[in-house]
Design a protein that fits this description.
By secondary structure, the protein is mostly helical. It is built from two helices and two strands; from the N terminus they run H-E-E-H. Strand 1 and strand 2 form a beta hairpin. The protein is flat and about 50 Å long.
Length: 75
């Protein structure tokens, strides 16, 4: 099984490159924007500007890290 592993990983990498290149050829390389789910509000704290979206991402990430920590078997 070991001799085939490098060949399979190279094949998988090449298929990924072919799919990505084909996607760029068919759809073009222009950026496409998803519609906003919530309206963006900007908060200015001195020199720092934060949006409600960035604050929400940090809060959700902290919650998910805490939730995943609860599944630790040594905890």
């Amino acid at each position: 099984m070991t001799p085939r592993a490098p060949r399979l990983s190279i094949t998988g990498l090449m298929i990924g490159i072919i799919l990505e290149t084909g996607n760029l050829a068919l759809l073009g390389a222009t950026r496409k924007k998803f519609p906003d789910i919530i309206e963006t509000t900007t908060f200015q704290l001195g020199e720092v500007s934060l949006t409600n979206t960035k604050i929400l991402i940090v809060l959700i990430s902290c919650f998910l890290m805490f939730a995943l920590h609860q599944f630790n078997p040594t905890h």
